[in-house]
What we know:
By secondary structure, this protein is of the alpha+beta class. The protein is 28% helix and 32% strand.
Amino acid sequence: MSPDQVNQTILTRLLAPDFKEVDGGAIYGLQGGHSRLFVTALPRDEVVELLSGLLDGQVTSQPWAEDYGQVHGSFAVKSDPRWVLGLAASEIASKKEDYAAFPDLLKQYTTEVLYAAPTVDEP
C-alpha cells in the first residue's frame, strides 16, 4: 500500500464508532502539526493489538516501545520508507489532570490514541 493508503486504512479504523476523535488542542495544547487524538473504551492492550494488525505487512518493522504507561512507535511505510507515521496508545486514567476539564471523557473512555499520519522528514 502507498503511504496514503496506509493512512486511509488507519483513519478508517480510528473513525469507526468504537473510537471518538477529540480536540487534542483543548486537552494538551497541541497546535498545528498533523497529529490527531482519539479515545475509546477498548483496553490499551487491545488497541495496540488492533493497530499492530493494521500495520502488519505495511511497515518495515513494528518497534513499539513502552514507557510511562504509553505504548508508542514510529513506523516506516514499507512501500516507501521515507514516509514515517506515528502511533501512541495510553490509558486515560493515568492522565486525570490532563482530562480534568473533560470529566465525561474520563467516565466513558479508557484509552487514548495519538496518530500522526505519514510524512517525510526533510533534512
